[in-house]
Amino acid sequence: MNKQLLFALDIGTRSVVGLVGEMENGLIKLVASDREEHHTRAMLDGQIHDVQEVAEVLASVKTRLEATTGALTKVAVAAAGRALCTLKISATLDTASHGALTTEDERSLELAAIQAAQAELATSGAVPQPSDYYCVGYSVISFSLDGTRIKSLVGQRGKHSAIEAIATFLPRQVIDSLQSALQTVGLEMSTLTLEPIAAINVLIPTTMRHLNLVLIDVGAGTSDVAITRDGSVIAYGMVPFAGDEITEAISQQYLLDFNVAETVKRQSGGKNKKISFTDVLGMSQKVSAKDIVAAMTPKVGELAQALAAEILALNNERPQAVLLVGGGALTPLLPEALAQALDIPAAKVAIRCPDSIEGIIGIPKTLCTPDSVTPLGILKLAGGRMLNFINITLNERTIRLFNLSRLTVADALLAAGIDIRALRGRPGMGLTISVNGKTRFIAGSHGNPGEILKNGQPAKLNDALHDQDTLVVNLGTNGTAPEPLLKDIAAAPESLPITIDGKNYLLEQPITVNGTPAAPNTILCDRDQICVNPKLTLKQALQQLALEPAPAEYVYQVNGSERSYTIWPQYTINNVLAAPDTLLASGNTIEILKLPPPTLADVLGINSQDSSSDIKVLFNGTPCTIPTHRHTVLVDGHLADISLPAISGSAIDFTTSDLQPLISDVLLAADFDPLSLPVTASVNVLLNGLATEFTAIVKNGDSVTIQIIEK
Fold first, then answer.
1. Does the pLDDT value for residue 171 go beyond 90?
2. Where is the SHS2 domain positioned along the sequence (predicted)?
3. How many domains would you assign to the chain?
């Protein structure tokens, strides 16, 4: 009976670890292991920089393992945690018309949150090239319905549902560089996981994740952080600060080659009291381990502070305990410095080794070290995961999916950039209009749902996907916004009968849209204000019938200058003088008045002259006003009275002179004509009771009396 071999590679910044296990009765039995360090700094911060150099180390490890296990063709690997980008996101869904919510509704909300995370990643500036990242996993923090936090939406009813989740993104470059190095040595990537996920699966099983624990994998280039709480992994993080910075500090202090400084660093944590080395100048030195530890202490403190800041940022509080793994976990004084930075007891920060791992047997003592946690985790996950990449066809387009977990139809839609909500078909936007001050809503048409076919059969978003599946996605069609006509919303009012200058008319009373008369076939828009059966004014009626007369214009030459005079039309309604804005009623009789031309007084504005200088006297006991100015008007050279009509085009000369009122002016103002007296009568003129002449001057307030005596 052939036994299944599992091959795992931990391609780290400092070294490559290879493990081969044999699957037997559900357990993995370790059968071979190998380790080799990079000859140069071909990897920095967990990223492959020299594919060929890394491939040479992979080939060496693979060759030595194959001497024990036979040919190895497929391998499980892990991507560096430093490449992860995690976003906490939320999304909402209007569920008022959904009835009881289903698993499909819950899944749609989850995927809406993922698409919101993709949109945020594209605009947040968190990564330089968002298009090179795609989602490799997410975890739900909570659901809520109408503002109430809830464990699951399935079977619930409500108006608004919401989700909070953590989405994790991985750059394609990480996978591409790993694949290139593996393909160079004839290996196919069978399983891809993430380094922090591999480590946490070894040391913190699901039964421990109700505790608020922090796992830190301190490598050479990066320190990966994973945090558990409330039964799940709540956050992943990364600090670009690890063992290499400590090595650099020793290298700078003692002028050492980087590889020599790395050796000195490792020896300082052992039992050696003195450490010998040769610097770049060729000088041999022998330094106490305490001095070397003292040289690296500032950098250890910086690393602890950086880790503490990341933990507190992700966890929002001090954790219950911290577990340190990775080769960098052995850095002297790191546990103590981290405990101090987090302000927790030193006993709560511990270096962990994989003494025993559930599901793996036969672990030799050489692998019971902190830097063996991640490779053992990769091997463990390799035994329970299917291929990490599958190829599917979506709408005749080939898509390669990263299979971190069970893939569904929804994952394919996300990878293809298809908006999950577009499958439903949104209803068309409605219109809100106002009719005579009352608001009315006109709904848009309903959208049509889309269709998903998997291998020719109808499928749902949460249906599982397999390699070589074919998907056809027809998006839903959105409803359309309504385009109502005015006549469909408001019927035209009855015609208004009126009479103008003896003729009968029927007036169409207009319907206005936003204050402007509109035709029955006018297409209405959102927020339109419709007024039906408004009161028709006299001016509107005359305009509708084209009977509105134009004002009469008269032009003159007054004292050598051109002057115009306008007479506006006048109207009566039922024989009463009316203004143009007078509202009409049914049966009104309207007359357009024929106005005479203006008088000379109108054109010259004589009646509007200031009369404040006129005097008032009593004539025979009756008040009488006497002007103190005299107007002289010549029309075309002829003396004319100001009460005569002013013919348009006339040349008018107009002068005004001051005068001293006399008794004769009083008689003229009082319309007293002496010639009308009998021939035999004699007249006595009294001014303030005293006899006077017709030429006597009068003043304001004087009393003039005429006595007539017949002989």
1. no
2. 6-203
3. 1
Average pLDDT, the chain: 83
Residue 80 corresponds to which tokens in the numbers above?
Answer: 């560096």
pLDDT digits (tens, 9 = 90+) for 252-262: 989 998 888 88
pTM for the model: 0.52
CATH code at position 634? 3.10.20
The pLDDT score that the predictor gives to residue 1 is: 40
Nearest 5°: the CA angle 487, 489, 492 is: 45
Query: Does the residue 259 lie in any domain?
Result: no
Rounded CA separation 703/711 (Å) = 26
Who wins on pLDDT, 349 or 637? 349
Rounded CA separation 332/354 (Å): 20
Nearest to 599 by CA among 648, 669, 670: 648
E strands, 479-540, are 496-500, 503-507, 511-513, 516-518, 529-531
User: Quick one: which of 352, 296, 294 has its CA closest to 321?
Assistant: 352
> Angle at CA 171, nearest 5°, toward 168 and 174?
120
Residue 92 pairs with which residues in a beta bridge?
Answer: 162
Residues constituting the chain: 711
d(CA 203, CA 355): 10
Domain presence at residue 619: yes
pLDDT at 387 over 50: no
Give yes or no for a contact between 341 and 352, defined as CB atoms under 8 angstroms apart: no
